[in-house]
Amino acid sequence: MILADRLGYFRSNVFDAMDRVKATVAATGQSIVDLSLGSADLPVAPHILRAIEAALQDPSTYGYQLFASTAAFRVAVATWYERRFGLKVDPEREVLTLIGSQEGTAHLPLAVMNPREYALVLDPGYPSHVGGVYLAGGQVYPLPLRAENQFLPDLEAVPLAVREQAKLLILSYPHNPTAAVAPLAFFEEAVTFCDRHDIILVHDFPYVDLVFDRERAPSIFEVDRDRQVGIEFYSLSKSYNMGGFRIGFAIGRADCIAGLRQVKSVIDFNQYAGILRGAIAALTEDQACVRQTCETFRTRRDAFVQALCDHGWFVPLPPATMYVWAQLPPPWQQDSLGFCQSLVKATGIAAAPGSGFGQGGEGYVRFALVRDRPCLEIAAAQIAAFTLKEGSPL
């Protein structure tokens, strides 16, 4: 069978390559310390689980959930957003339930882009941002992110011809994989840029709560207060450790919400009603669990980075997220996949190659802090020892 041409954009996938190597190593009996995926190992708060558990005993929750069935959740989202950022949103026209923010960012281009239009996308960046554009027949214009620019893109460097054909500017701060935080001044620049060129500003915002050291992660709507320019995507996966429950939401300009809702109506239904009830409890009840999650990842960050430094690998202290973004030493600076494959074969420790996040990620590796502190400290020592054994000065 001849598959669709559009799949050609996805044939080279370093994460699939890593999965195969991990499976091969695991088949030998060696245990895997998987630091390659941002899937939290922390528990879901009891009050969230109680809400889901109670729903299991209610037969009215067993059916399909259409848009109207999500009304209570969308009201909870609007209340959470007003409490968090001091801005009111319309839960009927400006909020949409999602199967995680990844689903929303991947489907939005189908709703708003025509073939050959451009999306301006961070490089490195999260793979679904690019994938959704290609599925919609759009073109990707990469925005290079460099350490010397605090991993913020230079919007004024985008050629005029590209700006004139651009439909989307896709941002995500705190940023995966670099862990950078964008200041409000940058969002002021981005909103002005998009307004001037009639571009939709898309902000993927799953790490809103995982910010350390008195940093703050602003919403784009602190600038675009009337939601005329942008749409913002949120997830309960990171703040509430609910990745497997697949629950998120979008807030933003009403026409984008309506278009995304139309796409979703022919692709999927919403979650089981019990998951929605659990998500309502998460957003509306005690937020101590969120603060505890943030503190856990902060202490893990401190321990892992310190352990790397103690063994000679000096990496910057990330200000946010659950990741450490480390520049590779020679001879791996042009072979992040090779580094990660060799590392897992030698030590059983899996990491994410920077090249999996775009050309701009080559020469870096991303470690997810999804093990407890003692495990991370041991892993850091093993990683450093492996690198030194391979003859690479750290």
Q: What characterizes the major β-sheet?
A: 7 strands, mixed
Mean pLDDT: 95
User: Which bin fits the share of residues in helices?
Assistant: 40-55%
**Straight-line distance between termini:** 48 Å
Rounded to an integer in angstroms, the radius of gyration calculated over CA atoms is: 21 Å
How are the strands ordered across the major sheet?
A: 2-8-7-6-5-3-4
Poorly predicted residue ranges: none
Description:
The protein has helices spanning 14-27, 46-56, 71-85, 101-112, 127-135, 160-165, 184-197, 236-239, 254-265, 273-284, 288-310, 336-347, 373-389, and strands spanning 33-34, 95-98, 118-123, 139-144, 166-171, 200-204, 230-235, 248-252, 323-327, 349-350, 352-353, 364-368. The protein is an alpha/beta fold and 394 residues long. The strands form three sheets. It has a seven-stranded mixed β-sheet, with helices on both faces. Strands 9-12-11 form a three-stranded antiparallel β-sheet. Helix 4 crosses helix 9 and helix 11 (288-310) runs parallel beside helix 13 (373-389). It is globular, with a radius of gyration of 21 Å. The termini are far apart. The model has no long low-confidence stretch (mean pLDDT 95).
